[in-house]
Predict the structure.
Amino acid sequence: MLKVDLHTHTADDPSDRIPYSTCDLIDRAAELGFDALAVTLHDRQLDPALFQSYAKARGIILVPGIEQTIEGRHVLLLNFSIAAESVHSFAQLARLKQRERGLVVAPHPFFPAGSALLSCMNRHANLFDAVEYNAMFTTLVNFNILGERWARRRGKPMIGNGDVHRLEQLGTTYSLIDAAPDADAICAAVAAGRVQVVAQPLSPFTAGRLMADLALDSVRKLRAPDRPALVPSPWPVKRVLRTLGVRPW
């Protein structure tokens, strides 16, 4: 069984502020005994060839991947060519799947986020090969339950992913996959259901701290170089923290 996380981000991400490099992520994954990773930047596919030798020396297989925005929703496209960057509609995704073999995963599909797939899951159910069990959950609040129910009704496998934006997230939720140590074999095994989710809930304090940290990064991204920062209302952040069982400021 291979220890795998197929949803991670690094400082190469064009959208999010990530405080560690791809090499830092590989080093940490090796320390935690991972066998394979997918670096899934937002709307940009990192060329695994740039880091293959570094990863191989540390026992890590790199699976090509991207967290692509499709009709305003996030979708994980794994082990496709660079053509995945050009997919912006579900019709284009269907055509990509006809041309290439790859793995399409629904990330955090029922989380309270604008990028979550939500009703698109039903409209385009045939396009998804697997459903993500996301690491951002606590014992009291777990939106993955909705994804589990959806996957069970449609006979789709669940895959554990960290959706890693901070190195401390790596290793809290991941997958054990019955496959040969190869990107093609790993994706084929997930599609065939030879995957086991390992998930450890976060404490409400940790979940709240991580959410607050990520929310502050979102605020920083609103800053333009020649004008003061645009600071959004704190109330959406407070609602998220309360949902996770954390008393905000």
